[in-house]
Design a protein that fits this description.
Blueprint lengths: L1 E7 L4 E7 L5 E5 L2 E5 L4 E3 L1 H12 L3 E6 L8 E2 L1 H8 L2 E5 L2 H12 L13 E3 L4 E4 L2 E7 L8 E5 L2 E5 L19 H11 L8 E4 L13 E3 H7 L9 H12 L8 H8 L34 H5 L1 H6 L8
Parallel strand pairs: 3-6, 6-8, 8-9, 13-14
Antiparallel strand pairs: 1-2, 2-3, 4-5, 4-7, 10-11, 11-12, 12-13, 14-15
Helix pairs in contact: 4-6
Length: 314
C-alpha cells in the first residue's frame, strides 16, 4: 500500500490517494473542489493535481471515500466519478445530516435517503480494493455520519482526530456530539495498535509550523493536546463544549454543506441557465416583521427603477 497526500492551503484540507502498488487499484479520500466565495465560482486546480498523479502512476480509481459531509470545502467526488468511473461512498448516517439541512436550506424535493451516493457504509463494512482491505470504522461526533478508514497499518480519521498539537474536531454542528466524539476517539481509534499510522483530514499549522498530516495512535494517546488516553469523558466534553462556543463558523459552511449532502453535485440549473446556492439570513428583529411598502414609496417605484438617483453606483 502506498499513500500520496495532497494539501489544499485555502481550506487546510488533506486529500489522500491510497493505492495497491501491485494491482494499481486506488481509493481517493476527501477530494477538494476549489470554490471562490466572493465570485461564487468553482475551479479544479486541486483535483487536477490529484488527477495528474493518478494518470502518471497508472492507477485505477475504484472508490471515492468521504469521511463525512464536509463543512469547510466542496467535494470533488462527482468530478472523479466522471473522469475515472469511481463510485462514491459515505457513512450511512448521512441521512440524518441530510434531514437536518434539508430543513435549514428549505430544499424542496431533496431526497434524504442517501440515494445521491453509490454506497452507504456502516461500522464493520469492508471494501476490497486490489490487495487492500478497507475496514470501515464509525467515528461520529464531529457529525453523526463520520467514518474513519482503516487500511493496513494506517487509519484515515477525517475530522475526528488531528495531529497531536491540534487535537480533535469541533462538535457544535447540527447533530454533532462531544460525548460521541470522545467515544469515537478514546474507545475506537485508541483501541487500534499503537504503531498504527494516523492520516488526518486537516492541518491548520498552529503557530505557523510546517505542514503535518501524520501521527500514530501511540503518539496521540500520549500527546494529543485535547484528548489523551487518560482524559476522562467528563473532562473532554466540558473542554470541547466550552471551546466550541468560541469558534466562528467555517467560511465555506453554507455552500459546502449544500453540495456535499448531495454527494458533490451542484444545485440544478434554473430556467435562466444558472445555478444558485441558498443563503439563510438571521435577520435583526426589526426586519423579521412583514415588510410594508408605503404608498409614497410604491408610487415612485417605477421612476426609481427607471432612473437611479444621483450619487448611485457608476
Amino acid at each position: 500500500m502506498q499513500i500520496k497526500p495532497f494539501f489544499d492551503p485555502a481550506t487546510s484540507t488533506l486529500t489522500y490517494v491510497v493505492f495497491d502498488e501491485g494491482t494499481r487499484d486506488a481509493v481517493i479520500i476527501d477530494p477538494v473542489l476549489d470554490y471562490d466565495p466572493a465570485a461564487s465560482k468553482t475551479a479544479t486546480k486541486s483535483i487536477d493535481e490529484v488527477d495528474a498523479f493518478v494518470r502518471a502512476s497508472g492507477l485505477t480509481v475504484r472508490w471515492v471515500l468521504e469521511t463525512h459531509a464536509h463543512a469547510d470545502h466542496l467535494s470533488a467526488s462527482q468530478i472523479l466519478k466522471r473522469r475515472f468511473g469511481a463510485k462514491v461512498a459515505i457513512g450511512a448516517r448521512i441521512t440524518e445530516v441530510q434531514k437536518v439541512f434539508k430543513g435549514v436550506f428549505d430544499l424542496e424535493g431533496f431526497p434524504t435517503d442517501g440515494s445521491q451516493f453509490d454506497r452507504l457504509l456502516t461500522d464493520g463494512d469492508v471494501l476490497q480494493v486490489g490487495s487492500m482491505t478497507v475496514k470501515i470504522l464509525a467515528t461520529p461526533g464531529h457529525t453523526p455520519a463520520c467514518l474513519s478508514f482503516s487500511i493496513g497499518d494506517a487509519v484515515f480519521t477525517g475530522d475526528a482526530l488531528f495531529v497531536d498539537d491540534y487535537g480533535t474536531g469541533r462538535t457544535d454542528f447540527p447533530a454533532g456530539s462531544a460525548d460521541e466524539l470522545y467515544r469515537s476517539v478514546h474507545d475506537v481509534l485508541y483501541a487500534l495498535p499503537d504503531e498504527t499510522r494516523v492520516f488526518v483530514g486537516h492541518d491548520y499549522q498552529p503557530g505557523g509550523r510546517e505542514l503535518r498530516w501524520q501521527t500514530t495512535i501511540g503518539s496521540a494517546k500520549r500527546n494529543n493536546i485535547q484528548l489523551k488516553a487518560e482524559t476522562t469523558r467528563e473532562e473532554y466534553v466540558k473542554f470541547r463544549t466550552t471551546r466550541d462556543a468560541t469558534l466562528s463558523a467555517p467560511k465555506l459552511l453554507l455552500p459546502s454543506v449544500q453540495v456535499n449532502i448531495a454527494a458533490g453535485r451542484l444545485p440544478k440549473k434554473h430556467a435562466n441557465g444558472r445555478r444558485y446556492l441558498s443563503l439563510p439570513i438571521a435577520a435583526v428583529p426589526e426586519l423579521e416583521e412583514d415588510e410594508r411598502i408605503s404608498p409614497r414609496a410604491e408610487a415612485r417605484g417605477s421612476d426609481a427603477l427607471a432612473k437611479p438617483a444621483a450619487g448611485g453606483l457608476a
